[in-house]
Amino acid sequence: MKQHTTIFFCCLLMFFSLSCSTNKTTDGQEEQKSTSASMAAWQNHKFSMFIHWGLYSIPAGVWNGEQITGYSEQIQGHARISKDEYTLLAQRFNPVNWNADSVALLAKQAGMKAIVITAKHHDGFNMYDTKYSDYNVVDATPYKRDVIKELSEACKRHDLKLGLYFSLIDWNYPGAKPFTSVRNSDSIPAAHHQYNLHQIEELLTNYGAISELWFDMSSPTCEQSKEMARLVKRLQPDCLISGRIWNDQGDFAVMGDNKSPEFQMGTPWQTPASMFDETWGYRSWQKRGDVKVKAKDKIRDLVNIVSMGGNYLLNIGPTGDGKVIPFEKQVLTEMGKWLKVNGEAVYGTSVSPVPSQEWGVITAKPGKLYLHVNVISDNKKLVLKGFNSKIKRIYPLANPSIRLNGTQDGDNLVIDLSDINASEFVTVFVIEYAGDLQYTPERVVRDNKAEFILTAENGTSYHSYSGHDYYSLHPTVVKIGWYLPKTDKSEYMLELSYTKAHLNKELRIDINGQEYFITPDENNYLPNEQCYRKQLGSVKLGDAAFNLIELNFKDQSNPHKDLNAEGLTLRLTVRR
Ligand code: JFZ
To answer: Quick one: average pLDDT of 441-461?
Structure first.
């Protein structure tokens, strides 16, 4: 059975790489990529606001007096409302309580760095002034104001980035597919695709700098995804593209709602989160519960996601008349209060080499670790496993004048929390250490008779996602890393074995920061082992506590591409 699954999976992967293989434009030029600076800036947002707001906010999950289940922003589909009837909602859209500045200020107060708003959702109603359809907020409603324009200006005033959600399916577009059995993953007819391209151009031309374009759903062809991606990069090279443009054309991967990845990611990523699992758009009859419980939940999700290197995009669903509901405002205010005290442990941090522990997660800055503690144990001791650096000081971030005592117990650091008042959400402690970080990685490859054998199994895999649409999306391995202990020999022969799947795809091997490149060729096939083998020459291992070796593709034009990691083995043998 296992065998079958593996074979099936391989076929799928081959199919994907054959059908969407190059990232070259039709005239053979390399596509324009976002600069690493814009990518780094985006990755440092950490926490941003998502807004689902449109005509669907008026019925708010109720149709003909009936509570409609299913996401309320998709009520047109869930309640089977005809196009004619649904479009009448536009005549009632007059959100007198909407105020772009107060929404921007709420995001600021919450500690958010950007706002991503629905420019167009699946219902096809345009929340901006488009010249390609009259079904838009300026031409079809009594409100007559360009919501996106006003928000873009408010974001500028309050120093927030603006991103736009853009649905690739459109239940209103003539000739486009309606809400169907394929669950929002229909293909895009040629005319609809042209319409999308025109609208992408408008959105990236009329509203200043857009930090991310949040494509969603549908099932575009490779060519369609590439065409949209090229257009985005031509108009605004610094605008990042969500993975839901599909076909590996996104700059960042999007997790499932409210989900964090089950593994380490090797590409930039984001978790979109709703306040309530049941809906993104406003639902009048939603059970909301307790503000503090929700705030705690969302703060823990935020730090968990940040500790894994991701961005957290938390949604609000304003009402049809433009109000942010008090519950959502209060949750964001609580989060903002926590971040005011603890923001140093979130913004500007990176993934900690010391992994998360039973009590919570860890973020890092040079010379510092931030311990995000969910529960302080009854014995008031906090154990940090594997940490043995030289400590300068330890203190609670909420009160840096307090000095905490840390004692080394073998490979563990034990911190005394006797006099600490815990936060009701997450309590953060800072460890400042001297010199390089010293710690024992969880997984270290041991040598076997003067030889190290490195495989996908004994290393750490870094992932991304690849696929044509929501339903074919699957995790890929894009990099493998291994920790090796310090050895008393330094010269090693390095050898790589690989399979047919790797032929001619140049690989990069990084040994303690020193790069080697190798192109797998057909020269030395070993029929018994069903792999090829290539000698790479002599390399040196360092004398630091641990050696770090990494393996990935040299060409990163498609950073989501699968390495076929199971077929790769590195062998380091002591030179005699
Ligand atoms: C999509 C939309 O259909 C939905 O209305 C909302 O806008 C949401 C943010 O995105 O729905 C999805 C898509 C993917 C997942 C969940 C909801 N997912 O990966 O779990």
So the answer is: 92
